Each structure stands twice: as structure tokens, then as C-alpha cells.
Batch of 2 targets.
Target 1
Amino acid sequence: MDIQALLQQFIELLKKENGYLIQSMNDKEASQKLIEIVQKKEEILQKILALEPEEVEPYKADLAQIDHWTQRNQALAINNIEFINEIFDAIYGKESATQYTKDGTISNQKKGFFNKKA
């Protein structure tokens, strides 16, 4: 496969991911499609990572777009996580035993009735 076509395909997936990140808070189907996009991105990323740096160097504009969309999608994902945390806090109060962190993991640092050992 042509390197530029591979990079363009990755950029298109990043753009789709962006749209699904926006929709995923309201639409279960968008969440499922987001998972599919992430899997496709991983496949393409493996192909890109297999290339030598010299092979990718001529495509600096495409790499800049990839960086732009990656940062944008990361910011959206972090905002979604913070929104989910706010909903949990509003429903369960500050005693909520679990909380999502910015890197997407679940934290059990909060102490609540159900989080204590018997």
C-alpha cells in the first residue's frame, strides 16, 4: 500500500473518531462505531509503525494532521470522562467508590461505604 494513502486513511479514521466521540455521549450506536474505528486505527497504526522514519519523512503535512486530530480527539475523550465523573458525583455524591481518570482507567481511591473492607 502507498504510504501517503495509508496516512490519509489514518487521518480519515481520526476524523470519524472525532465525530463519534461527540455523538457517543448521546448515542449507543456511536459508541459501538467508535470502538470499531479504534480497532481499525490500531491495524493501520501497526503498518505505519513498521515503516522506516525516512519513508515517512516526506509526508510531514500528513503527520501534522495526524498530530492535530490525535490531540483534538484526546481532548474530547478527556472531556467525556470528566463529564461521566460529574454525572456519577451528581447521582452518588462525593462518596462514589469509583472514578474515571484522565488516562481512561478506573480509580478506586475514593472511600465510600461499599469500598471499605469488612
Target 2
Amino acid sequence: MISDKISYNRAVHRIETANFAHKKGYYYSCASNLYFALFNYMQSVLGKTYTGKWKHIGIFKAFSRFSMERELFSERELKDIGKAYAGLYELRRQADYENSTYESYTIERLRYLSEFVAEILSHVNKS
């Protein structure tokens, strides 16, 4: 299922970094690394694109179509992945570009999203 091992290894390193950041209270770093863990995972499944690199907005659509065609994830799982990706995109945007603080529910949500993304990455071993 993995076409690009370098991107997969990046995804694994990013999830580990996100977990470390969360434990240390570095929630912005956690959010950014979770987002890129999922982004890199999708890159690893899709492989190289003809344009040379994947765009943040288009990658999930391509990943969803690719996964449905190959039955890598169920429709429900893809819907959940899409929601997580959109949520992480927003959290990363806030972390990188806004002058705001995360509320306690967002910090707890990051913990859940970390577990969710780690589960997605482990899916490679199930296919």
C-alpha cells in the first residue's frame, strides 16, 4: 500500500514529534506535526504526482478516490479521515499564522487526533 517510504517515515516521525510536543505542552507544534503526519501519510500512499508535489487542498480528494478504488479504507473511515484532515488543517493554520491560544477542549482534541492519526498510520500493516 505504501508507494513512497520516505514520506511514510516522515509521517511516523511527525506523529512521534507531535506526541512529544503534546506531553511538553507545545500544542502549536503538536497541531502542526499532526497535520503534516497525515499529509505525509497520504503522500506515502499516493506516491509521486505528475506535477512534482501534492497541494494541501487537493491531496485528500486524490487520496479518497485512490483509497476507494483500492478498498484501502471504508467510506465511513474516509469521511472520518477527511474531517480530521480539515480540522488539523485549521489548527495548523491557527498555530502557524494567528496570534491566539488553544482552549482546553482543543488541547484535549489534539490528544484524540494524535491517537486517530497514529491509528491511520498503523493501517499500513493491515492491508
